[in-house]
Amino acid sequence: MSIPNHILDQLNSQADLISIIGRHTTLKRAGSEFKGCCPFHGEKSPSFYVNPQKNIYHCFGCSVGGNAISFLRDYENLSFIEAVNELSKQTGIEVPKEEQQNVSYQRAKAKPKAQAKSAIKPAQSTTWSDETAARPPLTNNQPVIDNQSSLNASADYTQSPVYSDHNRYENYPPLEAYDSVPDTIDGYDAHYQGDANYQDGNSYPPAWLPEDDNTTAIYDDSASDKDGNLYELLEQIQQFYQHNLTLHPHAKHYFLSRGITEDTFATFGLGYAPFGWQHLEHQFPQDIEGLKALGLVRQSESGRDYDLLRDRVIFPIRDNQGRTIGFGGRALDDDVKPKYINSSDSPVFHKQHVLYGYYESRQQRANNWLVVEGYMDVIALYQAGIYGAVASMGTAINESQISRLLTLNPTLTLSFDGDSAGQKAAWRTLEVALPVLGDDKELRFLTLPNNHDPDTFIKSQGSDAMREQIAAAMPLSQYIFAYLSERHDLTVVEGKAKLMSQVRALTTALPKGSSFRYLLNNDIYQKLGGKRNQNKEAKDALLDFDGDMTISQQLQLCFLFQPRALIEDPIESIWHQAGITNLQLPAHIRKKASADILRPLAWEDLQDNALLDIVNTIKRCLNYLPKDANAAAHFILSNVKPTSQETLSRDWGPFYKALTTRNILSLEGLVEELVSQLIERHMKKKIQDLIKNPDNIKLAIVRKQSQLLNDWLREQHAERSAQMATVKS
């Protein structure tokens, strides 16, 4: 099977080479590269380097080197086809099934046409000149079309500017003069100006459009029959668009008015697609098949061809090697919908695998990467010296792209508009990123103030202020809580539960074994006032003033602080939650069991007189207790036995102070934990007593009760450890 070279290039450039090699050796960042011990030969000092920018590896010890395909083939012993298929799965880039699918297309022979308005001028050079102003360089002795009739400029700008090279544009009037200049249009305008269909990039040309324009020239039979190449055609189209920008002041004015300099024009190859339904066909008459393969020329219902991009400023889209693979077009009038149009997917352009600005940022050796929404954001940041900004092709950025950027730098910042659409896009990106967000990776979120985007913020505040905003971007944990808290009523328990449910669902997408899963749930649950946070604070408070207290003494003080914890008896609650109340026993055991062994556990069974005294006193006084916690505690203390009163009165003051200092409001979770520990101790002691004084029926029942209790305790421990998060995978 023959696989096109451009597909192989895409697979190698998009592959996560760090992860692929990292399965076999430990790689650590070393500047802009990663290094480790070579997996191909044994060594103690690392001499194996991986360059994530170029996506290649090399060992200075054994001289082995290559790309993703060669590593899979040479180290993992995959065949070439197996390696290609593996990378196809990883990157999502589809390998064409048809062997002949490639970047070539059949160029058409020029057909003789009757000469009309335009004169034929032979091509003397592939260099742009004023005489060939609206055309790209031509090859294969292709005749040049005098197409000035289709580029009628306004009376003020009929003369072409003095032009010396691609990067300089001289003798233009000052910027403010452009505002008074009417838009330059071609001969078609008289027919379709104001037609609603014109505004839609997917609309069809009007029915009156002639099959052949009067400006079509006569071509002789000497035109080359050589197959065309889509990459070469795209480069010529890019030059055509770029030079058209110099001929249409209203288009150039759009970029200048947004602060874009002429140096930036050249860096990004910015251009302009002129008015006219068939300007590409006029300029590339032998390349119609290629234009259609690229999606730049489409066919109407009536069978007429028309150009996709018309009267739009042009943003060439480049691949990782810097080759033009498509175009984005932006309407000059904000009322025109859609505002942006991207060229269609083609054999060389796959939107879901391309990031606008990636190539330019790599050329500047960018280290910090920032995902933004639009072309102009990328360009404005680049021009301000902030390299590493990229944008997706009108679709949501995908997992492989995020993984690629996180390989280049473990911290990735997402900058989306603060409006509803922008925040939804940020949230979708968050969800996509979670599966590749290992513990060593970080996602940050930047929402600029006053509804700014990077482009407008830089113009308003400057590049230094923009750098400060990027440095202060919000961590993922804070963003999740901020985003969800705006969508749930956190003043009620139901709202908190819904928020926590969404967080648990999110964290399940994190990689297996992720510590961040636990920590994220823990952090957000604590923000919601989770009981584990209160438990920990209460435990710390106990240790602050007396670390030698028994579990019983701690529990007595907790009951003094929160006597209403006994409204629903904690022992009965635990007994029920553990499933011991409805204990399932074999019939022969239940028949022989005494009623005493089957009854629920009671406070008296714990054989702790001081604890029993405080519990019974509180239950008697519950309906008469003051609302103030300190006053209620003293009311209880005045009703307990003198021995209990003496011990508790001594400890109450420091305990109360420690809790109030930490702003602890509830001890419900700590009470449950302490009572559980007392019950567990009691059950273990009971089993030991029954082993010493054998009673097989009682022992079987108590062991069953203890088993259920231990199962429940393990579940509770897991829940407390995970902060009500999902169980660790």
Walk me through the structure.
This protein starts with a helix and ends in an 8-residue tail after the last helix. The radius of gyration is 37 Å and the shape is elongated. It has a 6-stranded mixed beta sheet with strand order 16-18-17-19-20-21, with helices on both faces. A 5-stranded antiparallel beta sheet has the order 1-2-3-4-5. A 4-stranded antiparallel beta sheet has the order 10-13-14-15, with helices on both faces. A hairpin with a 5-residue loop joins β4 (56-59) and β5. The chain contains 29 helices and 21 strands. It is α+β, with helices and mostly antiparallel strands.
- Biggest sheet statistics: 6 strands, mixed
Task: Work out the helicity level.
Answer: 40-55%
- E-strand count: 21
Q: Largest beta sheet: what is the strand line-up? A: 16-18-17-19-20-21
| Radius of gyration, whole Å | 37 Å
Uncertain segments: 113-202, 210-223, 723-729
What is the global morphology? elongated
Number of helices: 29
Structural class, please? alpha+beta
What is the residue-mean pLDDT, rounded to a whole number? 78
Instruction: Bin the strand percentage.
Output: 5-15%
Distance between the termini: 41 Å
Summary, kept brief:
The protein is α+β, with helices and mostly antiparallel strands and about 725 residues long. The chain is built from 29 helices and 21 strands.
